Amino acid sequence: MIVGDATHDGVRLAQRHGVQPVAFRSGSDVHPLRNLQWQRSERFAAWLTDKLDDADLVHAHMIGAWWAVAQVIDAWIPFVATEHNQVNWATPRVKSLKPAACRIDRFYAMGPAAHRFAVTAGARPEVIRPARSPVAGLRATPRDGLRSPRLTFAGRFCRDKGPDVLVEAICLLDCRQLTAYLLGDGPLCAPLADQIQRRGMSARVFMPGWVHAPWRYVAGSAVHVVPSREEAWSQSAVLALGLGVPVVGARVDGLIDTPAQVLRDPGPELRVVTGNRVAVHSGSMTCASGPRAGVATQPCEPAQLSPARVSRALRPAARCVSSRAVSADTRPADRSTRRPARPPTLRGCLRRPASWPSPIAPARAGAGPPPP
Fold it and tell me: What is the DSSP string of 59-124?
């Protein structure tokens, strides 16, 4: 596992699962704006060069990773990319990704917006596929000591996930016996805590932080809320549905399609509620701002989204993209003959000699993340 930005907590999580990540840079936190998820970094691409030499297949997640990999990956190595989120870049900037996107052998898009982004970026239509993630905890039981009835949220405390909208909505609920657990961490953590205190809800709205097993909070909840301003494919919504917990979510991008992809019989169970009021058991939730909402209540089949099931679904794609690889007897056996040693760099930026066997030309480095 090769990563661009890694937090110390993220490294420990990977190690807990038996994976030792190799990080380009790491720290106690990742800057919410200046992180490699959204940047086209030539320094990162240069750092990757010798780490991909012996790969049989490379799977890169998010723009910053697949753009960097495309700059240095050998022509015979199968290359898979996944885009998880909606990308709010200007169209000319998206189209400038075409040299890198054309190199991708299979592109997994999380949600309709990510699919549109892949097409605009220049990925070949025949390699684009819809993506979904495995979800753990679908047979969980509630954690001891939790209050009931309770509302849950699980996700990054960032503007796109909308936890601030949820706090305002809870304040407007005429349901003081309802307790809320907001699971997660991120740059909005301190502002959310202040918002909760100002609204006088500290005794019934709790922020446990990042938790290893969020399903133990979600199981048995009265409702799980996904108030995202942008959402491609919500794992927490699928988790709640799998546990039989009703879900209230904003009608944005792929979130409205998520239940339809996983419910056994989504037709009669998926209801779109027009306007800003959504029924939640005996109370009501009023969104202070934001789009329409949808409600889905039927649990999904847990086996559909187990890691083993998703892995089996990916095997044909892996075989397909591997078939394009050059046979072993045509590959240079000696690494020194495959590519000249990387030349000295200027301020850490990659300078590619004309003799390097690359399927694409390097793209111009981008500037910063997408606007909120």
Answer: EEESHHHHHHHHHH--TTS-EEEEE-S-----HHHHHTTHHHHTT-SEEEESSHHHHHHHHHHT--
* pLDDT, tens only, 183-224: 999 889 999 999 999 999 999 999 999 898 999 999 999 989
CATH architecture of 150-303: 3-Layer(aba) Sandwich (3.40)
DSSP 8-state code for residue 63: H
CB of 185 closer than 8 Å to CB of 212: no
Residues 6+ apart with CB under 8 A from 200: none
Please give the helix or strand (H or E) that residue 279 lies within, else none: strand 277-280
Q: Could you give the angle at which helices 163-172 and 189-198 cross, rounded to 10 degrees?
A: 10
- pLDDT over 70 (residue 179): yes
Q: What is the pLDDT of residues 114-173, one digit of tens each?
A: 999 999 999 999 999 988 777 889 889 999 999 999 999 999 998 889 999 899 888 888
- Label residues 284-302 b or e (16+ Cβ within 10 Å = b): ebebeebebbbbbbbbbeb
- Cβ atoms < 10 Å from Cβ of 327: 7
Name the average pLDDT for the chain.
75
- Asked if 21 and 65 count as a contact pair (C-beta separation under 8 A), the reply is no
Give the separation between CA 282 and CA 276, rounded to whole angstroms.
17
Judged by DSSP in three states, 159 sits in helix
Find the mean pLDDT for residues 228-246: 85
* Nearest-angstrom CA–CA distance, 10 and 309: 25
Tokens for 330, please give them.
């045509």
Residue intervals in the chain for CATH 3.40.50.2000? 150-303
Between CA 6 and CA 29 the distance in angstroms is 8
Q: Which pLDDT tens digit goes with each residue over 58-85?
A: 999 999 999 999 999 998 899 999 998 8
> Which residue carries 């989504």 as its tokens?
266
